Amino acid sequence: MHLISFKLVAAVIFTLLLATGLYNTFKPMPAGLSRSTPTRPLYDARLIPDVSWRTAAGGHFQSQGIFREVFDLIAQAQRMIVIDMFLFNDSAPDSSFEPLAEKLTQALVARKQAVPELEVVVITDPLNTVYGGVRQPHFERLRQAGITLVETNLRPLRDSNPTWSALWRGCCQWFGNNPDGGWLPNAFEDGKVTLRSYLALLNFKANHRKTLVVDEDDQLRGLITSANPHAGSSRHWNTAITFTGPAALDLLATEEAVMTLSGVAVPDWSLPGKIYPPEATEDTDLHGQVLTEAAIREAAIDLIDRAGQGDRLDLAMFYLSHRGTVEALKAAHNRGATLRILLDRNEDAFGHAKNGIPNRQVAFELHQADIDIRWCNTAGEQCHNKLLMLRDSQGLARLLLGSANLTRRNIDNYNLETSMLVTGTADAPVMATATELFERLWMNGPGSTPVFSLPYSANADESRFRYWQYRFMEATGFSTF
Asked: Peptide bond preceding 358: is omega within 30 degrees of 0, i.e. cis?
């Protein structure tokens, strides 16, 4: 009888966990997420790259402009600033890294003090407090200055790691956390965190967006990037696009959805009517579409599927692992498109060594299909770009860039992400800058200086075991990519 009772209880528990895991993997997305906004004209659009490089003699240099643009835009705002950034802290391997979080905090507080009526909203991810396990001094200073700080509520999102998250939702999500009760080493910086911090971390989900919306004179300006205000990320390769026009209003709406998701009231921005143009009528050779979550996947695969004989498809990516995207790339190559894929080596993560998964394994698969692969020549920093560009034989171009890696977590409705699809002629300034950037990073022969990239053989890993390890991690969610 006792054995039957035990089996019955075990069966009920297993059924509940299975139902919890399935529901939270496939449940409807919260309102306003996974959006594909209308295609809008872009005005005064500029592409801003951050690049680090090495000379053949071993010298290290960098050109970082994205956060200079962010600070300049904050310094001129009069009515509103809405900024959403994933990593917002000063953790770094050593003190030689640029304290971007400190600089951003200073810029926001100074502007709020200079213009007290300015509405400032900072949206970020709870990873920065290790899910409530530590105090984040930057956040305290922002709140004290009267700035609205939104630590994104991740619970309504789908679960990318359902095997663990089903357990966590049943046993641990109700316990909260204590920033003063830590007793375990903090994996990200000095100090202690609670066990509850690590239990939440294993859900492997995030608000991974990097965006900014500000007023600029009588218009709104948007910025979408792959760069974080994070000291340990301050040397990374990144890309941003900044623009005015009605697409900036679309970008604002996607961030208002995150505020609503997190239980924070959307402010009355009190902006004049002319800052909200229903549609611009001026001529422009560039259009943009704001995309979030799985809409990014659909745009990426559609872009790749358009590539055929005589077309050029260039990809620079920190993580490439999404199976639908990998298959689409191979199909484009088989249709006769010219593909060039530039990948991070997945060797370094803020002072910690990594094993190269998943990029080495995907590179092996694409190399077997005779697709050209090169590696970013990094040493400590990351090739953190998320850049996909198609230039067709008719002189038109499509460019996808933003926060999203091409992975299951990033583009299958698990993380919060924001990217932009830009369309226009190949000689439009943004497209020309993207082309020049990719050419500069790709074309390195023997003895070149600076050495931006390395051949496939410099980082190849053709282990079948590790290939299938990547496939298992991608399929199950037992991974940070």
From this structure: yes
